[in-house]
Design a protein that fits this description.
Chain lengths: ~170, ~160
């Protein structure tokens, strides 16, 4: 099915890179998914190489039935985001995929030096839960068929992070 | 593949080792038949994982999801338990592929069901069909769009 992003990138998204970038990459990802973990350094390399040409957006798509820690990890990133540290938590979660239980997540929060009491309260926030549920729904309606799923300039990209990297190497240079 | 507007043929298959499900007993439900080639194979597992994750959306549309492959009920039981699936997997096992053939989605060469999604409305008429290339996981956007359309038409 030729799918495209039903919910365009907007002010509620977490965005890295230039808003004027010619290439917009949206990832629907799951912090406990090993394929997303493998994609993480590849995306970093793409960002380092192409700089301002790339806008990168991460949306939560926790596959809760097969990844029991994925939902709390998504909440942790959002909760850290309320204290201005979404991307720092996003990176730490992918760098510690094997320790995403409650204890592991609290250790990551301590490392980020966030207000722990506030962080713990926000982890229970109905608003953040709704944000994650909405992200799951928008992903499903947009044709996300597994994690990670990438969209380039709104169109579903049928490949993984390395395929994406190869494509950019060929087309941008 | 069976055509839009046709009456869906009734069928009955094992959903658990000792329990059968028939289409006619799902009288007041929209029914989504997800035919797939095989338990445990990578693409199918991803496809069914997305259907599983979307259960709240299917509930919203009064839709019951049924997975169907030619694997046996015992194989299905083990597979569903491993992946935590919350919808039934039906065993089109004996006679092999009979229900897949009824809907014309049986691959005679491979001896497996094709990768197809069929939406049956509450009157048990075929409302929407999609045949996916076997190696491609179709996701749930197409079926959700079809359910949205069906719901809007009725209201």
């Amino acid at each position: 099915m030729s799918s495209h992003l039903k919910n365009p990138v907007n002010e509620t998204d977490h965005i890295q890179g230039s808003s004027n970038a010619s290439i917009e990459i949206v990832e629907y990802g799951d912090y406990q998914c090993s394929y997303c973990g493998e994609a993480y350094p590849i995306i970093k390399r793409i960002q380092a190489k192409f700089g301002d040409q790339i806008k990168f957006v991460f949306r939560n798509f926790p596959l809760t039935e097969i990844h029991p820690y994925a939902y709390d990890a998504a909440l942790a990133a959002e909760a850290a985001g309320l204290q201005g540290k979404f991307w720092e938590m996003h990176d730490l979660l992918f760098e510690h995929q094997n320790a995403l239980d409650k204890h592991g997540i609290m250790k990551l929060a301590e490392r980020l030096d966030v207000d722990i009491q506030l962080f713990e309260e926000d982890m229970q926030s109905a608003v953040l839960q709704k944000r994650i549920d909405d992200s799951l729904e928008s992903g499903m309606l947009s044709g996300v068929n597994g994690t990670p799923s990438f969209f380039i300039n709104g169109g579903k990209f049928n490949g993984g992070a390395q395929d994406l990297s190869d494509l950019l190497d060929e087309s941008v240079e | 593949m069976i055509k839009r507007g046709e009456q869906a043929p009734d069928f009955e298959l094992f959903a658990t080792p000792d329990q059968k499900i028939s289409l006619s007993e799902l009288a007041d439900r929209n029914v989504v038949l997800v035919f797939y080639p095989a338990d445990w194979s990578p693409v199918c597992s991803d496809e069914l994982t997305i259907f599983n994750q979307a259960h709240k959306l299917f509930d919203k549309y009064d839709a019951t999801v049924l997975g169907i492959s030619v694997d046996s009920r015992w194989c299905h039981m083990s597979f569903a338990k491993d992946r935590n699936y919350h919808f039934p997997l039906l065993a089109d096992f004996h006679p092999k592929g009979a229900v897949s053939k009824l809907f014309d989605v049986y691959d005679e060469v491979e001896g497996e069901s094709k990768r197809a999604i069929i939406l049956i409305d509450k009157n048990k008429k075929i409302n929407w069909t999609y045949l996916s290339p076997t190696a491609i996981n179709p996701g749930v956007d197409g079926i959700l769009e079809a359910l949205e359309k069906l719901t809007n038409e009725k209201s």
